[in-house]
Structures are given as C-alpha cells and as structure tokens.
Amino acid sequence: MNGPLEGPGVSARGQLGGRYFLPMAPKAERRRGITRVSAKHQITIPVDALRDARIRPGDELRVTADGRGRLILTAVDDPLEALIGSAPGLSAETGLAALRDEWA
C-alpha cells in the first residue's frame, strides 16, 4: 500500500463501498494569545487576557487605534456606579424606575 486510499476494497478512484473520501488539510495549530480578524472584522479576545484585565461579560469597552497594528481596549466606567450606595437614600434597591414614572 502506498497511500491512505489504497488497500482491499478501495477502488482506483478513492471509492470504498460506494463512498468517496476527500482528503482534509491538516488543521492549523493556534498559538496561545494570538487571534485572527474574521471577514466580519470580529476578533475573539483570549480568556487569559480578559481575566488579567478583569473584564467580564457585559462590560463596555472603548476601542481606540494607536498606530498600525495596535488597538487599545479601555473599560468604560459608569460614573454613577461609584456613587450608588455612598449617599443616604441612594441604593440599587431604591426603585428608580418607579420614581421616574411619577414624573411622567
């Protein structure tokens, strides 16, 4: 036998029992920490980098370009989040939606 499609029961055209076999290209090995831009201009950020930067699902990020081949992602902080709970009567459980409806 000289190749993977030769042997008992395999025809000269790569046919085995009425089935055709197509050789697949070997899957490219990805390097850790490296990502690729998709056709839709999307990227996947490695989990280790997200964990190190303390970025969680749902966080908003500002994207700025810093020269060719360099993007900077910066977490966008909501300034009101820091104030919630710091003043009497202001908390996450206050029911701001109900208060807003009173003004409508």
Topology record:
Elements: E1 15-16, E2 19-20, H1 47-52, E3 61-65, E4 71-75, H2 79-83, H3 96-103
Antiparallel strand pairs: 1-2, 3-4
Overview of the molecule:
The chain has helices at residues 47-52, 79-83, 96-103, and strands at 15-16, 19-20, 61-65, 71-75. The protein is of the alpha+beta class and 104 residues long. The longest helix has 8 residues, at 96-103. It is elongated, with a radius of gyration of 28 Å.
pLDDT under 50 segments (min length 5)? Answer: none
Number of helices: 3
Q: Measured on Cα atoms, how large is the radius of gyration?
A: 28 Å
Overall geometry: elongated
Average pLDDT metric:
77
Short description:
The protein has 104 residues and is of the alpha+beta class. Helix content is 18%, strand content 13%.
List keywords for this structure.
single chain, 104 residues, alpha+beta, two-stranded antiparallel sheet, two-stranded antiparallel ribbon, 4 strands, elongated
